């Protein structure tokens, strides 16, 4: 075999060997995608994931199966995804915990949120609002601030648990206003809300996804909202910034991650279909029902948001002395 024939044969063999990989990449997805949710079924994160998964399934042409893996403040699910094969068939919902809080709340994590994930795209955010029981002496934010300053340590606040966005939102509020309010952690948003509505605990920060209905029905009084601008769903409620609290935007946010090393075309395809899903009627209705603001954008924008939030919340968590291990 002469040199020219040998080179042609080698080139043909290389092309044949590369063909299955090239086909797998250009044909993505070719099998069921597993979408891991690091919370129990039925919660807000789970419902959002299922709504988006159904919308994305229709354009991806493959089924997306939700896999609930709660535990360890989302670390169990996140670690599973970080260590999964980077082929685009395992993705996850990630929120403030995975992306911004846990690196400050735990002495050591089994994964690095900056290096061990591929950032696919942001899903959305919903602000947290400061609410009180209707019989609480303060009728507006100004009166609330005056009351807690006059009664340091005597006012309790509820949260869905240590390290939750609701807990840390109040710690940021305390930090910015120089107030002392005592934390009463619950195991979930539902029991915390129930005790605030019942008057057992006078106040809490509550996200719109969980509490919009009771806010609008006036079962609690909404004093201020932690968004950059007033919510269209609660137009009469001032923002914390309007009330004079600096650097006070507090919100829960979510996005989609995959393991580090996802092929660029896979990230691009998932990002495209996620952004397309925001325009569907089902997703728009679900987001409107829970007061969630969609955040279409690029993987790079999602990464930038996550790292900015991690940097912002680190000093707050350290000052409050909050640890989960």
TrEMBL record:
Classification via InterPro entries: BUG, Bug_dom1, TAT_signal
Keyword Iron: no
Pfam name, any one: TctC
Highest taxon, organism lineage: Bacteria
SUPFAM superfamilies for the chain: Periplasmic binding protein-like II (SSF53850)
Signal sequence region: 1-24
Positions of transmembrane segments: none
Keywords from the UniProt entry: Signal
PANTHER family hit by this protein: BLR1237 PROTEIN, TRICARBOXYLATE-BINDING PROTEIN
Family: Belongs to the UPF0065 (bug) family.
Name this polypeptide is given: Tripartite tricarboxylate transporter substrate binding protein
């Amino acid at each position: 075999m002469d040199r020219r024939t040998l080179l042609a044969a080698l080139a043909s063999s290389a092309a044949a060997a590369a063909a299955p990989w090239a086909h797998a990449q250009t044909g993505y997805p070719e099998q069921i995608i597993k979408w891991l949710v690091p919370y129990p079924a039925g919660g807000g994160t789970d419902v959002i994931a299922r709504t988006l998964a159904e919308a994305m399934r229709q354009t991806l042409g493959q089924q997306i199966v939700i896999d609930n893996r709660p535990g360890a403040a989302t670390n169990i699910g996140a670690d599973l995804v970080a260590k999964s094969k980077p082929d685009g068939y395992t993705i996850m919902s990630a929120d403030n915990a995975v992306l911004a809080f846990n690196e400050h709340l735990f002495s050591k994590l089994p994964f690095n949120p900056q290096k061990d994930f591929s950032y696919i795209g942001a899903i959305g955010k919903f602000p947290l609002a400061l609410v009180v029981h209707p019989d609480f002496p303060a009728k507006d934010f100004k009166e609330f601030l005056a009351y807690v300053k006059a009664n340091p340590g005597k006012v309790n606040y509820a949260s869905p648990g240590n390290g939750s966005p609701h807990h840390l939102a109040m710690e940021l509020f305390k930090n910015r206003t120089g107030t002392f309010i005592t934390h009463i952690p619950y195991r979930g948003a539902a029991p915390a809300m129930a005790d605030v509505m019942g008057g057992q605990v006078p106040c809490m920060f509550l996200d719109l996804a969980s509490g919009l209905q009771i806010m609008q029905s006036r079962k609690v009084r909404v004093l201020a909202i932690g968004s950059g601008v007033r919510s269209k769903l609660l137009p009469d409620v001032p923002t914390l910034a309007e009330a004079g609290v600096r650097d006070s935007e507090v919100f829960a946010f979510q996005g989609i991650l995959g393991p580090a090393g996802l092929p660029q075309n896979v990230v691009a395809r998932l990002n495209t279909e996620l952004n397309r899903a925001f325009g569907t009627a089902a997703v728009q209705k679900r987001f409107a029902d829970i007061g969630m603001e969609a955040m279409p954008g690029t993987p790079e924008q999602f990464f930038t948001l996550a790292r900015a939030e991690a940097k912002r919340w680190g000093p707050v968590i350290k000052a409050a002395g909050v640890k989960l291990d």
